[in-house]
Amino acid sequence: DLWERKSTDLSLRARRALPDVLRAFTQFVHRRQDIPAALTRETLEAIDNRAPALLRNLERDAGQPTVADLVSERLRLEAERVELVRDLLEQQLGSADAVARLDDVPLPDEAFDWSVVPADLPPRVTLLLDMAEPVALDIAGVELRTVLRRLVAKLAVTAPELLAAGPREDRQAAALLWVAASMNGLLGPRAGTTVAEMLAAFGLTGTVADRGRAILRALGWEDLPDAQYRLIHPDLLISERRRDLVQLREFYLGEG
C-alpha cells in the first residue's frame, strides 16, 4: 500500500530512490525481528519485481533536467525520504505521537497490576506468571518479565477468556512468553534463544503459534505477519528494541 501511494505522488528522483529505501528498511526490520531469510527474500523480490516497470515509465516520460531542476529535485528527494521513513515508523508504532515519545529508557522491575484482573482469575494468572516469569528472566532479565506482566494485564482487560483455565496451562504460559519475546526480537537463531529452547524450558516441544496468534489478535493485530511490523504497544518493547527504532528516527528525522 505504501509503495502504491508513494509511487504516484513523489517527485521523479524520489520515485527512482524509493525501491532502495524500501529494500534498506525491509532488511533493517527483518534483521531486528529475526524474520526467516526466505520471507525477507520474498519481500525484496516483490519490491524488485514491481520497480522496473514503474522506473521504465518514468524514464520514458522524463525530459532532460536543468541544474535548477536537479537542485530542486534533490531537495524534494530528501524531504520525501524523510516523509517515507516517518510514515513507516508511524505504521510500526501506531501514531506520530508514539514515534515522537519513543525513548530507550530501560523498563523498570514492575510489579503486576492485579487491579485489572477479574475476580475469578487471580489463581489462574498467578499460575501462568509463576510458570512464565522464570523463563522470561533467563531470556532477557527483568525487562522481559515486565513486558510479560504488562501483556498479561492487557489481556485481563481486553480478552480475559484467553487467561481462563484450559487443558494445558504450560502451553498457555509458553504462548504468553512467546508473544512477549517475539515482538522484541528475542527468539531465533541470531537472538540467543530459539523457540525450541524456550519451549524446552517449559518441558514442551512443537509450537504455541496458534495460541500466540490468538493473543496477538486480542491485542489488536490482525495476524502474525502484521505483528512483526506494526508494534502498536510501545510499552511492550524492551529498551534494546526501542533503541533501534530511536536510532532510525534520529538518523532519518533528526528527532532525538
What is the secondary structure topology, with strand pairs?
Elements: H1 2-9, H2 12-33, H3 37-61, H4 67-93, H5 96-101, H6 122-158, H7 169-182, H8 195-201, H9 209-218, H10 224-229, H11 239-253
| SSE topology string | HHHHHHHHHHH
Described by strand count, sense and barrel closure, the largest sheet is:
none
Give the overall form.
elongated
- Total of helices: 11
Query: In angstroms, what is the radius of gyration?
Result: 21 Å
Instruction: List segments where confidence is low: pLDDT < 50 over at least 5 consecutive residues.
Output: 1-9
Distance between the termini: 28 Å
Task: Give structural notes.
This protein is mostly helical and 256 residues long. Helices cover 69% and strands 0% of the residues. It has 11 helices and no strands. It has helices at 2-9, 12-33, 37-61, 67-93, 96-101, 122-158, 169-182, 195-201, 209-218, 224-229, 239-253. Helix 6 crosses helix 7. The chain is elongated, with a radius of gyration of 21 Å. The model is unreliable at 1-9 (pLDDT under 50).
Quick gist of this model?
The protein is mostly helical and 256 residues long. The chain has helices at 2-9, 12-33, 37-61, 67-93, 96-101, 122-158, 169-182, 195-201, 209-218, 224-229, 239-253. Helix 2 runs antiparallel to helix 3 (37-61), helix 6 packs across helix 7 and helix 7 crosses helix 9 (209-218).
